[in-house]
Amino acid sequence: MNAKAVMDDLRRRFPNEPEYLQAVEEVVSTIEDAYNEHPEFERYNLIERLCIPDRIFAFRVSWVDDKGRVQNNMGYRIQHNNAIGPYKGGIRFHASVNLSILKFLAFEQTFKNSLTTLAMGGAKGGSDFSPRGKSNMEVMRFCQAFIAELWRQIGPDTDVPAGDIGVGAREVGYMYGMYKKMARENTGTFTGKGLEFGGSLIRPEATGYGNVYFLLNMLATRGIDIKGKRVAISGSGNVAQYTAKKLLELGAKVITMSDSDGTIYVKDGLTQEQLDYIFELKNYYRGRISEFAENFECEYTPGIRPWGYPCDIAMPSATQNEINGEEARTLLANGCFAVSEGANMPSTPEAIKEFLKARILYAPGKAANAGGVSVSGLEMAQNAQKITWTADEVDAKLKSIMADIHHQCEVFGKEPDGYINYVKGANNAGFMKVATAMMAQGIL
Ligand code: NDP
């Protein structure tokens, strides 16, 4: 395999899909050597079959808003690869959603799920519908219309969706309810469900907590204590909230949070009372982060991201490409020594280059944020056995999975000078498992 030739071909075939091409290039460029040690991979044209999704469903979602007007959105499900288990990956509702973004997410998900040690393939879905500013009834009607189209393609052993940006407990509940009605089964086809109907304890917390557990593993390789460290977080949704919660518990200082309108800065770190307010503001009132600043009279800057504030650790937890090269250089110049990604592909290729060049602890999302899908896998396991584990049991399993992922990154990513290149490690570890499974199953 020649990584450049693979990319040239994909660029020619999918010229309007920049995020997809970006995600593929990051992986292909780091697995080239390992791939070429196995000539049988090339004979089976494995790389192309791994980069191009198994199938894509695209459909119109028509629904009626509160004023009686008919609205139309696009809906998608990308089933990327099921070599190691049923397709698995979240659903994103955001105005920016398009095929390129969902293809990048489904591609990443395949490698991430492989790293979790659980039997899950990769998928992603979503719509350009934005729940922001919609009433509960509008969100419910949209979710039902979305599932009326998608339900035939998913199932407990086929494809198991979950949440992502714009899809939290409320949306999962509405979608799962409709799925259950259409499919006439109660087998837990979604994860992230309410606790009363098959959800797992610690699933809401899992991505944020898991990212902090991964960070602790990274810090341990350099003997660094998290206590008192200043952490800049972006976003204020599910991942950001639980990242902040675990950090506070461990004595770190959370100095920033944000939303798509702007960033709050609290120099001495958020207090527990302030974080509780953010949970309530975002999850119950669905308000804006600027309201936090008004309430607590802290610094709020509209239209900026958090990376200009001096910090020790950055945990981007909002969206893709939210740290560019310039911002990476600013973070480094201000002394940031660790970046652990809660979001998917939040750092641009230029930013990643800067982090690796500076030899800081840098964990790509497919390793650091894998805790969410891991506990989704544990939710599937509990549903299949019709049992529930305690919060402590699930949390212990989550910690152990994150340590295992860290170990895989170390094994596959340690460089001759001892530096752990987590990008190389995560991509190669994730790749080898999927590739081996694909080879064993023939050309499908
Ligand atoms: P939420 O919808 O709960 O929160 C998203 C947060 O990011 C909000 O604060 C939102 O602000 C902000 N945001 C979204 N889009 C943009 C944008 N274009 N520019 C600036 N800010 C933006 O989503 P999650 O917390 O679930 O997801 C956050 C990230 O983590 C995503 O990249 C997701 O793919 C990833 N992830 C999530 C997992 C999960 O279990 N939920 C698992 C693994 C990864 P606003 O309210 O203004 O839109």
Number of strands: 12
Oligomeric state of shown chains? single chain
CA-to-CA gap between the ends? 20 Å
What global shape is seen?
A: globular
Architecture overview:
This protein has 444 residues and is of the alpha/beta class. It is built from 17 helices and 12 strands. It has helices spanning 3-13, 18-36, 39-43, 46-51, 99-115, 136-150, 169-183, 203-220, 238-249, 272-283, 289-296, 325-333, 349-357, 365-368, 371-385, 391-413, 422-441, and strands at 55-64, 70-81, 87-93, 122-127, 159-162, 230-233, 253-259, 262-265, 299-302, 313-315, 338-340, 361-363. It has a 7-stranded mixed sheet with strand order 9-8-7-6-10-11-12, with helices on both faces. Strands 1-2-4-3-5 form a 5-stranded mixed sheet, sandwiched between helices. The longest helix has 23 residues, at 391-413. The two termini are 20 Å apart. The structure holds NADPH dihydro-nicotinamide-adenine-dinucleotide phosphate. NADPH dihydro-nicotinamide-adenine-dinucleotide phosphate is lined by residues 163-166, 168, 207, 235-240, 259-261, 317-319, 342-344, 369, 372.
Compact description:
With 444 residues, this protein is of the alpha/beta class. Helices cover 49% and strands 15% of the residues. Bound molecules: NADPH dihydro-nicotinamide-adenine-dinucleotide phosphate.
